[in-house]
Design the sequence.
């Protein structure tokens, strides 16, 4: 099955860019996702990328996919205090999605 | 995207009892999923629930412990049976969007504490 790994913690200053990294094992994953979970809240789908893409940009978010290294990253430009949350990457195909361990992003004012 | 609601939002239950969690979606969906998120952990898929058929359970989860109902295309329930403190988790239901099977959305979750 799919294994998805992330670093546990990232701290950035407000206004800087944040880069959250993720590695996965299953090269057959069709879609790769980024979710945001704020304290006490459910999961919010931020963005996703098809496995045949290298990059996707959506406002302040940029997703980069390196298929050769099975590495996915999420860049948040101009990070704000409201971006403080846990970010999960996830990979899968139709129906089944496997989640990473989550990265806690702390934004320092 | 669809609006997903769950009841209850949280509960504190005694060991040995059972709790049924409800998931309601404001539109018809084919696929519904139940996940567990243990404290400080990532999400683990419990089972996939399709309307009109038995739920499909992931390794490590069994129907006797986590019975699931899916009576129609907008509703599902997950029961956590004979609870122990190890069942203390957030339980989340999830759907795939009707028009794009790869977009998976989550309900707000049910925070369960077993004492």
Sequence:
């Amino acid at each position: 099955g799919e294994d998805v790994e992330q670093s546990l913690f990232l701290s950035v200053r407000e206004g800087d860019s944040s880069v959250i990294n993720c590695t996965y094992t299953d090269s057959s994953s069709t879609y790769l996702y980024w979710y945001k979970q704020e304290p006490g809240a459910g999961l919010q789908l931020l963005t996703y990328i098809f496995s045949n893409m290298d990059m996707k940009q959506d406002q302040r978010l940029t997703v980069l996919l390196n298929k050769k290294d099975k590495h996915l990253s999420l860049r948040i430009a101009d990070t704000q205090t409201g971006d403080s949350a846990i970010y999960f990457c996830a990979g899968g195909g139709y129906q089944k999605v496997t989640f990473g361990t989550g990265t806690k992003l702390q934004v320092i004012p | 995207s669809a609006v997903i609601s769950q009841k209850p939002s949280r509960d504190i239950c005694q060991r040995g009892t059972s709790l049924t969690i409800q998931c309601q979606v404001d539109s018809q969906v084919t696929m519904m999923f139940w996940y567990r998120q243990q404290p400080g952990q990532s999400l683990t898929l419990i089972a996939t629930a399709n309307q009109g058929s038995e739920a499909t359970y992931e390794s490590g989860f069994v129907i006797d412990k986590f019975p699931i109902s899916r009576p129609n295309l907008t509703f599902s329930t997950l029961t956590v049976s004979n609870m122990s403190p190890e069942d203390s988790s957030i339980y989340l239901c999830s759907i795939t969007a009707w028009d794009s099977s790869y977009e998976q959305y989550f309900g707000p979750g049910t925070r369960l504490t077993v004492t």
Remarks:
- Chain A has a mean pLDDT of 90.
- Chain A touches chain B through 20 residues (CB under 8 Å).
